[in-house]
Amino acid sequence: MRSASKALGLLAAVAFVVAFPRMAPDAFILSVGVVIMSYAVLATSWNFVGGFTGYISLGHAAYSGLGAYATGLLVIETGMNPWLAMLAGGLLVAAFAVPVGIASLRVRGASFVIVSIALVLILLLVFQSWGSFTGGSNGLRVPRPFGTDVLRPEQHERFFYLHAVLLAVALLTWWLIDRSRFGTGLKAIREDEDKAQSLGVPTFQYKLVAFVVSAFFTALGGGMYALWFGFLDPIFQFSILVGSYMVLMSLLGGIRSLFGPVLGAVIVGYAVEYFKAQYGDTQFHLVAMGLLLALVVLFMPDGIIPAASSLLNRFRPQAASIREVTAAELAEQRRSAADAEEREPVTEGARR
Amino acid sequence: MKVSTSLRLSALAATSSLALTGCISSGSAGGDGGDGEDAPIKIGISLPLTGDFSEPGKGVQRGYEAWADHVNENGGLLGRQVELTILDDQSNADRVAADYEKLINQDGVDLVFGPFSTRLVVPAAQVAQDYGFLFVEPAGAAEEVFTQGFDNLFYAAPAVADDHYDHLADAIEALPEDERPKTAAYAAMDDPFAMGTAYGLKTRLEEMGVKTVVDEVYPPNTTDFGSIAAKIADSDADVVVGGTQYQDAVNLIVALRQLDYQPEMAAFSTAPTNPEFPEAIGTETEGILSPTGYTPEAPYESNQEFVDYYTETHGTPPAEDEANAWTTGQVVAAAVEAVGCADPDAECQQQLIDWLRENEVETVVGPLTWDEAGRPQGAHLIQQYVDGKIRIVLPEDAAEADLILDKPEW
Amino acid sequence: MSLLLQSLVLGVLLGGLYALLAAGLTLYFGVMRVVMIAHSAFLILAAYLAWFFTRTTGLDPMISLLLTVPLFFGIGVVMQRLLISRLRPATLTMMSVLLTFSIALTIEGLLGFAFTGTQRRIRLPYGGANFEILGANVAVVKLIAFLLAAVSLGALFLLLKKTQFGQALRATIQHPEAARLVGINTDRVAGYGFGLGLATAAIGGTALALDSTIYPSLHWHWIGPLMAIIVVGGLGSIPGAAIAAMVLGLGQSLLQIPLGTTWAQTFFYIALFATLMLRPQGFFGGRLAQRF
């Protein structure tokens, strides 16, 4: 019963993705589909660090931007095959993420967030200034991987499927980690880093690996977007807004669930178009995003999927096994226990 | 259980999102409202109406709208009314591409006009090129726009950024060698257009042997010009050249004045031609030079009509952004009238493109022709603040006042 | 030589403003462990209010402080009580980042909504006035901004050191548990601390508006350097933040001579990374910083 409905849901989602380009009424809708797919890839990639460890990075645009530039520059400078360049770009960015991760993960949350923002700002400055290499403010045009005989709507279609494949790989990786011992350790860090450490979880190494994997997939997402869009400008690549969209999407869908970021990407991607159509000539899209983020943080920090599934479960009590409920209750107990101990770490620190 | 619920939810979301795509499409007023003989010619435009480029973006919007009204009051294009669809790209490159994608595919426009700012022109031109559309743009003067291999692009203004100061450079070159300035300081915003103007003059001056003593590039978001001004003041250069947009020029001038630096010649792009400039700087504008692609006083035939019409409807004479937009309209209209078609199919668009390659168009900024990459083949006028008003000083045959060579103190 | 001196003067004047703003950020972090991303958005909001005040009344922008400082103090208290205190303590640091980030976005959007994206600048009769000391020119507006910052910072320091409220506040920062045990209402103190922090943004914003262009998205330009300053200074340490602000402001100003404007800006971030690599608790921070 469980596996059947699981398979059915997955099948429906896959069927929808496969059929979407055929159903899209025009090339514009198709291009919106590509953008939403790209959001989904980026949000899922973000969720490797955000979802597993609970460390919120506002600066993942740094990795998508670097991935995009690495891909573009490798293609232009070395004439490499664009798909190889994308992969190489992802690996380069992953290597770059190692020292950044070491610097920002040694200390707890606050510094991590600050570094994530600072990294975007510093990269923006560097890519603007180093014009001879990056194209600077003139932007960088990335050659298309497909010839000119492939018309634009068909480009959209191909890139839609390519993004879908990348998304599937990212989701599969997330799922595998989620079920592994490694994933259990990461989730322990998310719930209580001090306890995880005292239980022998190598927290720093675990966090670093999750961080690097996240940077790798984000860079691949950025690289693929670069190949599709064909034009890179530092102010749009290294933008805090891009990074914050990833956070909003993941958080909205639910950072603890596999499909949360994807759901968030679909909602946000659609909402962006909708707000644009309705309030296009004003700055209202910023206000809308700000308010939406605030509402999620204040009232639904676990996202839509957990909120909705608990709602569904309430209507169908018999469908949920006893164990599931206990697990949820346990989580709640854990959380309130953590609440009670909130100030304790400081005291401990003082004692040391 | 949990996973299956979330899966079902995402499937639900996916299905509903498909239903919603219908809503995005229906938002636009009927894609194919009929392409009969009398149906209006639909023109699609994306402009930065919000965000960092919104100020000039709105100027361009006023120019486009005035042009469309004017055309409609005078019998339309090919006897058909024109109808503008203007979308807001939020000063964002991703958006500008999506906007043209939408205009061409969903709104079914017959023609497109270009957006504002070099940074947005390239991604927009790419979309237009992929769909075979003619792309005439009112802003995007930087050399980089013309080296991307676009064969559908035309810049509707007299000169590309690098040539803006040509008349000034000529005038300096004409001076006896010992009267020429010896040193020059350059400060340019890190923006292809602004840098292009300053570096165009720099190249010319260096050829004449004017020594570059300061060469500063600052990011577009710079608000503190103290350190740059300190460098320029310390060099005590004879000439200061600002590759500026608007507010950065104001800030730089104030910062230079705070350091009591007095150059013999001061030239800034864009800002001094802005009507708000004397308001922001006060009375110390005397002698400041600026290149301009447009002035309401220009003697060209259609310009008088434009200035009268615009002044009547808006109460103020048009500025450069409005004029560039109007020019864009004039250029496309000339091609449409000559070829006799205005529809989105590739054949018509290609005819329009071919026609513009071969012909000269009379516009409010003078007659325009283009090279094979779409660069206009003219030069900008040089204006200077003389007796508190901005006047044309170069070239001599268009001059309203004499060039002041030794700038008064500011 | 005169260029060096000039840059030194400019650096000190800039550093003063950074110090005031960084002190505010440190206050939030101290009392609530909150990284307040919206600090610089409020800074720009105050600058806009000063600009709008001068435009509508024609009075000097500094008079607007009489309105904005109490207003911002009130907003700060309300924000802490109604929004920040709602967050789960276990995830407070992360969620408060997001919450204040969303406030920053909302402010930016509303400013764009109300005043458009046009860059604004207050025109002051003394805008270009300057005088010379030892061969360096000092702009009057920059000096006023610096003095405003210095006086406010001094007042804040006295408030923290000499008053009972200041003691309660410092106790809350250093040891909230113990502060509660000795009868300090830490919730109320935290609210006031938040209000004080936001009041520094009001003063800083007005000082900024005196000699700078403002536009809605300007706050991103400020938040990076300010964040770097509080990490380098040691999270939670007000004197540390002030010293780091001065050092980094001077450093940026001096580095502009050989490096140019753009690369000099990277100095803040290089200092940030270096600090985290070498001394993660910051150069002036105490044990508090070690855990965050």
TrEMBL record, chain B:
GO biological processes: amino acid transport
SUPFAM superfamilies: Periplasmic binding protein-like I
CDD domains: PBP1_ABC_ligand_binding-like (cd06338)
Keyword Hydrolase annotated: no
Signal peptide: 1-19
Keywords from the named record: Amino-acid transport, Signal, Transport
One matching Pfam family: Peripla_BP_6
InterPro entries from the UniProt entry: BCAA_transport, Leu-bd, Leu_Ile_Val-bd, Peripla_BP_I
The keyword Signal belongs to this UniProt entry's keyword annotation: yes
Domain Leucine-binding protein: start-end pairs: 40-386
Family recorded in the similarity comment: Belongs to the leucine-binding protein family.
Protein name: Branched-chain amino acid ABC transporter substrate-binding protein
Organism the protein comes from: Nocardioides iriomotensis
Automatic annotation (TrEMBL), chain C:
Keyword 4Fe-4S: no
Compartments in which it is found: Cell membrane
UniProt KW keywords: Amino-acid transport, Cell membrane, Membrane, Transmembrane, Transmembrane helix, Transport
Pfam family, one: BPD_transp_2
Membrane topology: Multi-pass membrane protein
GO terms assigned for molecular function: transmembrane transporter activity
UniProt record, GO biological process: amino acid transport
Keyword check for Membrane: yes
Broad class of where this protein is predominantly found: membrane
Signal peptide boundaries: none
InterPro entries registered for this protein in UniProt: ABC_transp_permease, BCAA_transport_permease
Annotated TM spans: 32-53, 65-84, 90-115, 136-160, 189-210, 222-248, 254-278
GO cellular component: plasma membrane
Family, as annotated: Belongs to the binding-protein-dependent transport system permease family. LivHM subfamily.
Protein's UniProt name: Branched-chain amino acid ABC transporter permease
Species of provenance: Nocardioides iriomotensis
Species classification: Bacteria, Bacillati, Actinomycetota, Actinomycetes, Propionibacteriales
